[in-house]
């Protein structure tokens, strides 16, 4: 039983069709990674799910109650300190100030931010710090559905590994569902239960790959090997323009819901 | 804690920046003195004489009450314009249609000479307090309205999306998203309106009332008393400078401390 069901979604910006015939399911507790070349419409799809855009056409059933969204840009409020930015969603839920403070300090520690950083305004923080604060702002409200648009792209490898662990821990503790956009296949293999591939003009989903290995058993070797296998896959190669060829779209309509397993 | 720690150095640096303003004022006085010496006291008395005259006027109890009367009229008109203009400007800015409708009206109102309003006000309200107050109000209204509307229209859509995703209730959208952004448009508009309000009130009083700085100016003009005239001008400018630099500018700095480079 999937908590989010999207059928026949189509979206146009003015007259340009950017998303066409999208069918997507997301089960409770599932982590889905959306990959695809730049400009293919991933962020647009995410904004539609977040309720920020109304699609031109679609049947959407969404049973998630709390949704948090981390945008591709940090989008912090420039007139609020890091701490007040992190607790924005809590304040909207009428959580008392003292509790907000406490939670902000706890989450800041796990995000590798110091107490001093929390008192700074966004323009005084580095790009990576800003994106960690945006991640904190999304995690702190403990949402059922977490929408992440390239959450780790501004971070160094050490921080990435640290935050991967934080995110996985959050998912297991809360049972949240996650839809994350990433350009990094290895990141997708590391974190996701399922990977969906999108291609541009117009944005379509052309294949999905289920990762059956449980998260506890994903060793570094397994991650490297699986990523390499994915990179060799025809759909991925053609989709990212690494190989010539055309995708048989009538075929994908059938394979989509069964999915290719790895 | 941190903010308290920053308060002292910020205040000191603000006061320090006052030296530049002071230097430029003194330079202006020097030029004034030079020109005054060239033309003679009858045409342009120097700054020292004018300030002496002003002191005399204060000591004899003439200047104070008149300034208070004018100040009261300015404040009434100005506050009314600030409140109504900010509110209506924001409401207009929320919708594309109203702001498109409002734009030509603003141009019209801004282009209307205050003296024309004054004549109308004298016809409508007669020779009482209401005439200068109304003239100030109507002269400042479009300035504030335009600032508020511009500010509301230019709020980044990205931040509106954040407010929507995190389900901010309407009062939080106002205090946490709109007002902080609006402040940087409203404050310059308010400061311009403040200057306009004093100019207009003096002009209105000159023609329509028997008390206030404007009326006093009319008397000193009739007596061909240049140094008293200039003393009144200096008094008005002094009030203007004091309200801007001792009241509005510190508030603005406090509200905009998040901006890059404000504290430098
Ligand atoms: N507000 C808009 N108005 C018109 N066209 C838009 C708008 N936003 C996006 N587009 C177009 O829609 C297409 C998809 O954009 P989108 O931001 O969803 O891509 P993306 O897959 O997230 O890319 P990236 O990986 O680079 O972030 C692009 O061709 C873009 O030009
Ligand atoms: Mg994007």
Please characterize this protein's 3D structure:
The complex is a heterodimer of chains A (262) and B (264). Chain A has 262 residues and is an alpha/beta fold. Chain A folds into 2 domains: 2-66 and 145-261, Rossmann fold, CATH 3.40.50.300; 76-142. Chain A has 11 helices and 10 strands. Chain A has a 7-stranded mixed beta sheet with strand order 5-6-7-3-8-9-10, with helices on both faces. Chain A has a 3-stranded antiparallel beta sheet with strand order 2-1-4, with no helix packed on it. In chain A, helix 8 crosses helix 9 (220-232). Chain B is mostly helical and 264 residues long. Chain B has one domain (65-263): MetI-like (MetI-like fold, Orthogonal Bundle). Chain B is 84% helix and 0% strand. Chain B is built from 10 helices and no strands. Chain B has helices spanning 2-39, 47-59, 63-94, 96-111, 114-125, 130-153, 157-165, 170-208, 213-222, 226-255. In chain B, helix 2 crosses helix 10 (226-255). Chain B is globular. The interface between A and B is medium-sized, with 25 and 21 residues.
Largest sheet of chain A: 7 strands, mixed
The CATH topology of the largest domain in chain A is given as Rossmann fold
Bound molecules: adenosine-5'-triphosphate, magnesium ion
The helix/strand series of chain B, from N terminus to C terminus, equals: HHHHHHHHHH
Q: Largest chain interface and its two residue counts?
A: A-B, 25 and 21 residues
Task: Tell me the fraction of residues in β-strands of chain A, as a range.
Answer: 15-25%
Helix vs. strand class of chain B: mainly alpha
* Residues in helix, % of chain A: 25-40%
CATH 2nd-level architecture of the largest domain in chain A? 3-Layer(aba) Sandwich
What helical percentage do the residues of chain B reach? over 70%
The H-level CATH homologous superfamily of chain B, spelled out, is MetI-like
CATH fold-level assignment of chain B: MetI-like fold
